[in-house]
Write a structure and sequence with these properties.
The complex is a heterodimer.
Chain A: H1 31-41, H2 43-66, H3 97-133, H4 135-150, H5 153-163, H6 168-195, H7 198-205, H8 210-221, H9 223-246, H10 258-266, H11 273-301
Chain B: H1 2-29, H2 43-52, H3 59-71, H4 86-121, H5 126-140, H6 143-157, H7 169-199, H8 202-209, H9 214-226, H10 228-251, H11 257-267, H12 270-298
Helix pairs in contact in B: 1-3, 1-12, 4-5, 4-7, 4-10, 4-12, 5-7, 6-7, 6-10, 7-9, 7-10, 8-9, 10-11, 10-12, 11-12
The chains are: A mainly alpha, B mainly alpha.
Chain lengths: 306, 311
């Protein structure tokens, strides 16, 4: 058996200076930092962000780069194949498809972002008020939302497009008139959940007004699900725009959107399939990018997903 | 149960009343009369036409008459196609849409559930990635682009299937596939995540530890429980198929109700627009009710009797 060799020094108390027990090993992270760290790991979602940024840049730079514009008819050069002069070819009126594609990107992205933003504002206010006050207020507000929700979204949009003069804003208004309900429901659910938290009570007992409680405390804490819904609203708005334009109810000429371009190209699909290819490809790419970003954000922001 | 059903029917009636009222006043507010065309009608004839269609009555009386007629499922004559009743147009075109819709729903459910289950069973393996790539693409490619791609490849280039019209089963394949794409992708994703959740549940481990075969556990225990979210997705599925039919029927030249609706919108054929809108709404509200009832039957944890339903 081995002999333990001990001396007096081994029985000295350990100085607490040697170990900093209070020190936290990792750097403290906030909710958003943590979410960003997880989002960054998702290569697919990052690729989506890069694609959207590129599309955004090209929507402004695309026209000037090619030196063509989106509205100039040139019937002598109609239905050209992609060439050095017309990079994506020309359509049935001889308009440059490259310039039109990026102009369409501007319109489609603008409609998508705008519709999502308006949905966001109305949805947050409606949902937060209903969820916060509860009771009768909640019941009536949500009943109104339920009735609107019962009518199919596209049906309402099409009916509104019939009676309103055609235009960009008509399209956006038609899309937001029932589009906000989804957002309102999500915000309401979140606010109802958070309303009974201690920090709300603490703030309330310190005399905070209702609007301060709502917009300083409750709404910021529901930002995660709101952002996810927002990124998933954008592709659906872009889809709706393309769908309506395809039916001939979208943005009026000479404005071009990817939907109207696809619709125009459909007639000559058999002979000039490339005319359909470009707008269709970019619709799919944009929707794909936003969907992937939305999925990535949901995974990153959902605390349960850890 | 009976009380719940009555309450739901009451809500449906209220919703329908709103829809009928709103469509009526929207169509009245729409610019351009029903007889506005390039060729100006002599005023006397226009006067007579207005008289014949009851357009000279005060708006409240028109509204009252309209409500009464809607209850009788009589939407009046089409303004564009003389001699055709709106209800006849609906009766004539709806069967096409119904066949197409049912095919698409079946396709979306069968393939979607299958893909989802495969993805969950092969979690983080090749099969999972393939299924999820299909699902993400399905969500990102709009139905009308899918339809034109299918049409171009299978009908124009390969000449394997008919380009358009609706005469035999072969005619229905391409439109049904195009219509089913997006919901199929949604169902696959839904099924995958719920299957993954269920496969980790304790009762699955219990079943496995009792020595049951993998197959019995997967199909008898897991699948039955995992399919519940898909059942609750049936409502949005019906909506999606219905609105999707507007564009798919147009692309494939199918004389269905969706196509009639789109044509009536471009023609500003107000009575047809109103009739189809009301018909669509009735169809949807009832199919959502049926879905909720089915959900209550399938999942014993949800009692339909206590008012709120599934909330």
């Amino acid at each position: 058996m081995e002999q333990l060799k001990l001396n007096n020094a081994d029985f000295e108390p350990i100085s607490d200076k040697k170990f900093d027990t209070e020190k936290i090993a990792g750097e403290s992270t906030s909710y958003w930092k943590d979410a960003w760290r997880r989002f960054r790991k998702n290569k697919l979602a990052l690729a989506g962000v890069v694609i959207i940024i590129l599309l955004g840049i090209m929507s402004f730079a695309g026209g000037p780069i090619s030196g063509q514009n989106y509205y100039q008819n040139d019937l002598m050069n109609a239905n050209q194949k992609p060439s050095a002069e017309h990079w994506f070819g020309t359509d049935n009126l001889g308009r440059d498809v490259f310039a039109r594609t990026w102009y369409g990107a501007k319109i489609s992205l603008f409609i998508g972002l705008m519709a999502a933003l308006i949905d966001l504002i109305i949805g947050i206010i409606w949902g937060a008020v209903a969820g916060f006050f509860g009771g009768k207020v909640d019941e009536y507000m949500m009943r109104i939302a339920d009735i609107l929700y019962g009518v199919p979204y596209l049906l309402v949009v099409i009916l509104l497009m019939v009676i309103m003069p055609p235009g960009l804003w008509t399209l956006i208004i038609a899309m937001t008139i029932t589009g906000w309900i989804n957002m309102a429901r999500i915000v309401r659910g979140q606010v109802m959940q958070l309303r009974s938290e201690e920090y709300v009570m603490a703030s309330q007992s310190l005399g905070a007004s209702n609007s301060r409680l709502l917009f300083r405390h409750l709404v910021p804490n529901t930002m995660g699900p709101i952002l996810v819904t927002l990124t998933l609203t954008i592709p659906s708005a872009i889809f709706t725009e393309a769908f309506l334009s395809f039916l001939g109810l979208g943005v009026p000429a000479p404005l071009a959107s990817w939907g109207t371009m696809s619709s125009d190209a459909l007639g000559s699909l058999q002979y000039y399939p490339f005319q359909l290819f470009f707008p269709a490809f970019f619709i799919c790419l944009t929707m794909l990018a936003f969907n992937v970003i939305g999925d990535g954000m949901r995974d990153a922001l959902d605390p349960k997903g850890r | 149960m009976a009380k719940y059903l009555l309450k739901r029917l009451g809500y449906i009636l209220v919703s329908l009343f709103f829809i009928v009222t709103i469509t009526f006043f929207l169509m009245k507010a729409a610019p351009g009369g029903p007889f506005a065309s390039e060729r100006k009608l002599p005023p006397a004839i226009e006067q007579q036409m207005n008289e014949a269609y009851g357009l000279n009555d005060p708006i409240i009386k028109q509204y009252g008459d309209y409500l009464v007629n809607v209850v009788k499922f009589d939407f009046g004559p089409s303004f564009k196609y003389t001699g055709q009743e709106v209800s006849d147009i609906i009766k004539r075109s709806f069967p096409y849409s119904l066949i197409l819709g049912l095919e698409a729903i079946f396709l979306a459910l069968a393939v979607g559930v299958l893909l989802g289950v495969v993805a969950a069973l092969k979690h983080n393996k090749f099969g999972d990635y393939i299924a999820m790539v299909i699902a993400v693409l399905g969500i990102s490619v709009p139905s009308f682009i899918m339809a034109t791609i299918l049409q171009y490849i299978f009908a124009i280039k390969l000449q394997a299937l008919p380009v358009a019209r609706f005469e035999s089963f072969a005619h229905t394949i391409l439109p049904a596939v195009a219509l089913a794409t997006t919901p199929l992708a949604f169902i696959a994703r839904l099924m995958r995540s719920s299957m993954l959740e269920v496969l980790n549940a304790d009762y699955i481990k219990t079943a496995k530890s009792k020595g049951m075969s993998e197959r019995v556990v997967t199909y008898k225990h897991a699948l039955r429980n995992a399919i519940l979210p898909v059942v609750s997705y049936l409502g949005p599925l019906v909506v999606g198929i219905l609105t999707g039919s507007f564009i798919i029927e147009k692309i494939f030249g199918i004389p269905g109700l969706g196509n009639e609706f789109v044509v009536s919108v471009t023609n500003r054929d107000y009575t047809v627009i109103m009739g189809t809108t009301v018909f669509f709404s009735v169809l949807l509200l009832f199919s959502i009710l049926v879905v909720d009832l089915i959900y209550g039957l399938v999942d014993p944890r949800i009692k339909v009797t206590d008012g709120g339903g599934k909330e």
